[in-house]
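Researcher: Please generate the 3D structure of the following complex. Treat every line as part of one assembly.
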Amino acid sequence: MIRWVAPIGASRTGAAHRRAGRPCQDAVLCRELRGLEGQPVMVMAVADGHGGRRYRRSEVGSRLACETALAAVQGALAARSLDGGEEGWSRWLERDLPEAIQRGWLEAVAAHWQSDPGEGGFEALLYGSTLGLVVMTPRWWGHTGLGDWDLVRVEADGQARLLEEENQPTALGEATCSLCQPRAASLFARRAGLHRLDGGAADFALVLCTDGIRKSCATDGDFLTLAAWLARGDGEADPEAAGTLSAALDRISREGSGDDVTVAVGRVWSPGGGPPPAPSPSPVEPAPLAPPAPHPAEPLQAPPPPRRHRPAIGRAVAIGLALAGVGGIWLAWNWPRSPTALPPTPGSPGLRAARLEVERLCGQPAAIPLALRRRSELFVALRQGRQDPAPLKAAAAADPLAALIAADLPAEDRRDGTSPAANPAGRPAAARPHRPLRALGACPALLEALDRQWALTPAAPTP
Amino acid sequence: MPFPDVKLANRPLHFLYLCDCSGSMAASGKMQALNQAIRQSLPGMAAVARDNPEARVLVRAVSFADRAAWHIETPTPVDQLEWRDLQAGGITAMGAALQLVAAALQTPPMEVRALPPVLVLISDGQPTDDFAAGLEALRRVPWAQKAVRLAIALGHDADLEVLQRFIGTEPATAGRSPRRPLQAGNATSLAQYIQWASTAVVGAASMPASRVSETPLEPAAGNIPLPDLPPTVLDPTDDVGPVVW
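Model: Done. Output below.
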C-alpha cells in the first residue's frame, strides 16, 4: 500500500494581469479525502479561467470547477469501495466523474449568476474554465480533466516526464477545451488515465499545473527541470515552503508568459525520504464563494464519531416538516449529518440538483428501479453502516441520486441482522409517512421503488 | 533550495505584413504611402512591445508582385527593425505570398508556445495567380487558423471579396459588426490603419485571454477579439483627407 503526502498547491496572479488590474483567473484546490473504508485519498485540482470580456466571470468559474471536482470525487469515494475493480475506477475517470463534474459545475455557475446577476443573460460561457484533476489512492492514482493543463511525473532521482498535455491541433495559441462547452464531459476521456501502484514502487511526485508555467519556459526541457524543482520543493515541509513556492511562481510569470500561474504537487511518502504525511494536512483551497449557513440545530464543535450515536431521523424529519418552506426542506435533508460535512444550504446547487433528480426520476417512473439497482452497493453500504450519509448529501450537486438515497436511509435501519422482510426499511411507503424525499416532491413511484430496493438490501450481519 | 537553472522567456508574437508591390501600387503614391505608414508605425509598435514584456514582437514582411518573396525573412524584434522601402512593379502573385506565409507558420519553425500571430494583407488589386490554392494552403496550417488576420484595401480597385476570404467570415457579435476589410482611400487613412494594427492589435494579441477551442462536434468560438478601430477611422465624417485612390 502506497502512502501519499498531502498535496500542496499555489496559484498566483500573472504579471500581466497584475499590471492590468485583473484578478487571478486560476484556481487550485488540494485536499485529503477518505475512501469508503477510511483509506486516505489525496486530490488536487487546478483550473484556468479563460479571462477576457467574453469569459468575464471565469475567475469564479475556475474556482467552482475545483470545488465541484472535489465534491464529485468525494461523492464517489463515499459510494464505492476503493478495493473494487480498477477498471471501474478507470471508467469513472473517463465518464462518470466528468459527467458529475460538468453537471455540478453548470449548476454551480447558474446558481452564482442567480445570486449575482450581471448584464445580459446567463451563459455558462461567461464562467469558462479548464480543469485538471489528480486523484491519489493507496492502490492507484488517476487523472482526468480538459483544457491546457500539464501533468509531470518526477522520479526520486529527479528525472521528469511529461505525462499529460493538451495535444489538440485546434488547441494552439490560446484556444483550449472548456467546461462551458456543451459536450465538455465527453472531452475528459482523452485526458483520463489510471495508473496502478506497486507497493514496492520507487517514490515519485506528480506536478499538475496550468499552462502559464509551461508557456513561461523557453523549452520543454526547461519546463521539466522546473517541474522537478517544484516537486522537490514541497518535501522540505518547512514553514517557508509555501512562501517559497509563491515567490517562485511570481518569478516564473514575471520572467515568462505573464499569465496566471498555478501548480499542485502530490508526492508518494518515502519512509526514509522525509517526515511522514501529516495526519491533518492543511488543505489548499480558495475562499468559499458563499459560506454555508451554519446548521440551525447543531453546534459546529465536538463532532460525534460517525454512525456511533446517530440521532433518530424521525425526530429531525418531524422538526423539518414542521418548518415551512425551503428552510424546512433543508433541515429535513440535512439531519442528521456530520458537522464536518458541507451541507447543501437552502437554495444551494445541491438542493436544486436533488430536486431536479427527483423530477427526472419521476418523469420516467419505469426507469426508476433500474437506476436504483445500479446503486445497490450504495444501499448496502448505507444500510450496513459502512457509509455515512452526510457526505453524500453534502455532495448532492455532484451526485444527486446518491444524495437522495442517503437522505432516504430509514431512521429505524438497524444492524441487528433482521431479515429484509421484517425490516422497517421494507415497509410500504405508507408506513413511513415522514420521509425527506416527500419534501422534495418525490412521487409515489420513486418512494415505492426505494422501499423495494431497501427491502432487497441485506442488513449488517449479526456480530 | 535555489531557483533552478532554467531559461524563462517571454512568448514570441509574430507580426507579418503581406504587401502588394504590383505595378499599380506605383500610381498615386500608394507605394510611397505604404512605406511611410509602416515606417512611421514602428516607434508606436515598439512602445507597445515594451509595455507588454511578456510578448516578444517579431516582424516579418512578404512582398508580392510577379512572384512572392521575403522582404524581411528573419523574425526581427520590432525595436531592431529598419524598414527598407518596397518597390512597385509587376503583377499580383497574392496566392504565392499566402503559400510562403503558410510554410513559415508550420511548427517548426513556429514555436508551440508562441502567441497567435498577426497577419496583415495590404493590396490595391486582384490576384493574378492561384489565390484559392494559396488560401487553402494557409487554411490548412493551424497557426494560420489561429492568427489574427487583417486586410487593408487600397483604393477602389482592390478586390474586397478576395480580402474578405483572407480574413475569413466571423459573425457579428454583441455590439460588433462582422469583420470586413479596411478600406483606405488615401495616405492618412492608410497610416491610421497601419498604426492601429501595429499598436492596438499587437497590444491585444500580446496579452490574450484564452478561449474555447473548436472540437469535432463544436465550432470555434472565434479568435482573439480585435480592439475597436479608432473613432477617426470609423466615422466617415472625420477629416482623414479626400479619397484619392
